[in-house]
Design brief:
Alpha-Beta Plaits; alpha+beta; four-stranded antiparallel sheet; 2 domains; seven-stranded antiparallel sheet
Length: 247
């Protein structure tokens, strides 16, 4: 299930000024909106093979960018973002709680909720779908250098590990959601078009995260395609990475 949340400045004549790297701001809004109903989600998520999976994803902001300056991005008019999860109660709670907020604080900006709209469910019955990323897809490994230091290596979509890790990650999500083992393996990911300009570097707290926009093709069991749609692909979905939209 997914929704689109549209916000506008409390002062309708005022531009919306946000940090250039705003993922943490949007994540904070989501967690603050559902904390009473889902108090353990931030810290514990849903345990899976020693990992914490949060089972939600959100997009980049959608809006008219006026300019970028001094580590801030300035929008004219309303901004919107999408949130998805296979847990419909999570999405319903988020939407309902946002509707009851008289003013929404977004990085110090007073915002008003303009609309919350439910997005239609996509049809995956063909088993083959092309998606565009609406937040960067990130896939990485933590390596140890010869001198014992840990180093994060982010994979390019052309590297085989990129699709391999996405497939494994979707398998863990599917297992958590109760799908049978033979279904978990029935998914393949291929890049269709990824340009150099599709690489995005995002600062999340004190961490640099590299991800890729672009167009991807997923083939497999419709239930696995639905998980990619609802949960996102790759890592760090709950930090605003890996959300897809059908094209």
């Amino acid at each position: 299930m997914r929704i689109q949340v549209e916000l506008t400045s409390k002062d309708t004549n005022e531009n919306i000024i946000l940090p250039l790297h705003y993922n943490k701001v949007l994540q904070g809004l989501i967690y603050n909106s559902i904390r009473i109903n889902f108090p353990n989600l931030h810290d514990y998520g849903y345990p899976s093979a020693g990992r914490k999976i949060k089972l939600f994803v959100f997009s980049r902001l959608i809006g008219k960018v006026v300019t970028i300056r001094e580590n801030h991005i300035i929008f004219n008019g309303p901004v919107a973002f999408k949130v998805a999860s296979p847990d419909s109660s999570f999405i319903e709670t988020l939407a309902n709680n946002l509707l009851h907020m008289p003013v929404i604080n977004l990085a110090g900006m007073g915002m008003l909720l303009r609309t919350v709209s439910i997005q239609p469910q996509a049809d995956f019955s063909s088993g083959l779908v092309r998606f565009k990323a609406i937040s960067p897809v990130t896939v990485y490994s933590t390596l140890v250098t010869p001198d014992g230091r840990k180093k994060t290596y982010y994979y390019h979509p052309a590297e085989k590990e990129f699709s391999q890790q996405i497939k494994a990650n979707l398998g863990r999500k599917g297992e958590l959601l109760g799908l049978e083992r033979d279904i978990l393996q029935n998914i393949n990911v291929n890049k269709v078009m990824v340009r150099n300009s599709d690489q995005k570097i995002v600062y999340f707290k004190d961490t640099i995260i590299k991800g890729w926009m672009g167009i991807y093709e997923l083939k497999g069991d419709p239930r696995m395609l639905s998980i990619a749609w609802d949960c996102g692909i790759g890592a760090k979905n709950s930090q605003g990475f890996g959300m897809l939209e059908c094209i």
